[in-house]
Amino acid sequence: MFFKDIIGHDELKRRLIDTVKSGHIAHAQLFEGSDGAGTLPLAIAYARYLQCTGRSDNDACGTCPSCRQISALMHPDLHFVFPIANKKQRKEPVCDDYIAEWRDYLKATPYPSAESWQQFLATGNSQPLIYVHEAHEIIRKLTLKSFESEYKIMIIWQAHLMNEACANAILKLIEEPFDKTLFLLVSDHPEKILETIRSRTQRIKVPPLATDTIATALQQRHGLDSQTANAVAHTAAGDYLKALEAIQLSEERERFFTLFVTLMRQAYARQVKELKRWSEEVAALGRESEKRFIGYCQQMLRESFIYNQHRPELNYTRPEESQFLSRFAPFINGANIEELCELFRLAERDIAQNANGKIVFFDVAVQVIILIRKGSQPA
């Protein structure tokens, strides 16, 4: 990862580069912000720039031995710590047990996230953590002399997932680091990091990306037209990963949109037989898709309610959804919004508890008939 590969943050990149040029490099820095803002890519690009022997004014050269080693994620003076789940049943699991998977993941995922890393590891419901044994590895690696570069760099991704014992074990090293040793902590929940560690870091706040920055990236990197790119970027709310997710899930979202529109139109027309067929169609999606569809319905109800406030900057919908809401939103108001939200919340709970989808969704449809009519009555 180079600075040039990272979307936006031109001013932040300039400040990071200036620290290297001036030699004013804090020994412990905390990159805080969402994964979709590019916190880890920024930390890696910064480490690359520090280690590069042929750096320019704006970026690493990409051709020196150091850059080639970092591209392969095999630089002997750049170390990674990341959350792991003890899938391999090691007695004392450490990140080096998963380093091959980590390299494959980073090469395939320019903008990593905790969720996609967990899916890549196939850990199921097991929550990856940074265990206390990792602290011993961190100390061992940093006590060694540098192999090739001026700095030894330790990147700790998702630093808030260090358990307390691990955090306490490396505290002294962060307080009194070895010469030319650099800690780069990365977290989207910095408030969960041990306060004694957090207070000893230089905070690097990575803000959400501007909408036009995301839109430009979607056009240049994914071939979206201007209108679609702007709509997707708006819904992403400064998070590039959410924009990518919206592109990847566009086919499913279109199907959900059709199902939502069908539900509301048939409920308004009181077409009970058609709604029974609708509930059977939704139940055939499969349990995980059913849960995502309920989440989509909840989002559309919220967007409908907000649409009535005439604050378009607060709406996060695609053009076809906005067109539908312009006609549908008046039926979602103070008379029924709370009951509708509760209805779908209960449906989500029931589906999660393996209730029969046909029964759950037909009950939802019948209740929507009543609540849509309630919202259409004069106040």
Task: Give an account of the 3D structure.
There is one protein chain. With 379 residues, the protein is α/β, with parallel strands linked by helices. The protein folds into 3 domains: 3-207, Rossmann fold (3-Layer(aba) Sandwich); 210-248; 250-376, Zinc Finger, Delta Prime, domain 3, CATH 1.20.272. The protein is built from 17 helices and 5 strands. The radius of gyration is 25 Å and the shape is elongated.
What is the CATH homology-level superfamily of the largest domain? P-loop containing nucleotide triphosphate hydrolases
CATH architecture of the largest domain: 3-Layer(aba) Sandwich
Structural class estimated from helices and strands: alpha/beta
Shape: elongated
The top level CATH class name of the largest domain: Alpha Beta
Rg over CA atoms? 25 Å
First-last Cα distance: 57 Å
Q: What's the pLDDT, averaged over the residues?
A: 91
Q: What is the share of helical residues?
A: 55-70%
Topology, number of strands: 5
Spans with pLDDT under 50 lasting ≥5 residues?
none
Please give the order of strands in the largest beta sheet: 2-3-4-1-5
**Content of β-strand:** 5-15%
CATH fold-level assignment of the largest domain: Rossmann fold
Number of helices: 17
Order of helices and strands: HEHHEHHHEHEHEHHHHHHHHH
The description of the largest β-sheet is:
5 strands, parallel
Structural domain tally: 3
Structure summary:
By secondary structure, this protein is an alpha/beta fold. It folds into three domains: 3-207, Rossmann fold (3-Layer(aba) Sandwich), CATH 3.40.50.300; 210-248; 250-376, Zinc Finger, Delta Prime, domain 3 (Up-down Bundle), CATH 1.20.272.
